Amino acid sequence: MDCFCCFNNQEDFWTDPASSIIKAYETTDQTILSHSSDLGQGGSTAVTAILINNQKLWVANVGDSRAVLSRRGVAEQMTIDHEPNTERGIIENKGGFVSNMPGDVARVNGQLAVSRAFGDKNLKSHLRSDPDIRYVDIDLDAELLILASDGLWKVMANQEAVDIARRIKDPQKAAKQLVVESLNRESKDDISCIVVHFKG
């Protein structure tokens, strides 16, 4: 499921961007939960980027969808992957548990491989949906930003993705090539990808 966060009040964003982003994520989660009868019991991770005047960048995420910035060809991870082992204490304090089956990744209640997500109604009492948020100034060193789901990041390192994207001038073609490369590497998870080029 692809998610788009809802910003109800643009004026709030200009006065307090971080609070506005948190509210947008909360509204998105509540909207998905309220439509669970139509959408099913599943959920989604998300990564969002807001670029203002090509100079100010706000990035937020829930789950293991990730944003990676390229500065002079060097990859810089902008987001935090929300993994169950990292947030085990929070999950257990909410009455959940984290299990590692032999040969498997850590999962919330033995089911979900992320500790934060939209939806997932049957696990919601043990999950968070609030985002981690980061702000950076975009200067002349910043070349591009990659936003992608875990289907790409499970088979490709941040620097590898940046190296591929930098070779292709058209950002849409760069995103497509990253998806193709992920499929060639036999990624088994969903793959969504957007590449943003910054104007020099």
From TrEMBL:
Name of the protein in question: protein-serine/threonine phosphatase
Cofactor annotation: Mn(2+); Mg(2+)
InterPro entries: PP2C, PPM-type-like_dom_sf, PPM-type_phosphatase-like_dom
Reactions catalysed: O-phospho-L-threonyl-[protein] + H2O = L-threonyl-[protein] + phosphate; O-phospho-L-seryl-[protein] + H2O = L-seryl-[protein] + phosphate
UniProt cross-references to Pfam families, sorted A to Z: PP2C
Taxonomic superkingdom: Eukaryota
Annotated EC: 3.1.3.16
Keywords: Hydrolase, Magnesium, Manganese, Metal-binding, Protein phosphatase
Ranges of residues in domain PPM-type phosphatase: 1-198
Enzyme class: hydrolase
SUPFAM superfamilies associated with the record: PP2C-like
GO molecular function: metal ion binding; protein serine/threonine phosphatase activity
Family: Belongs to the PP2C family.
Name of the coding gene: LOC102667117
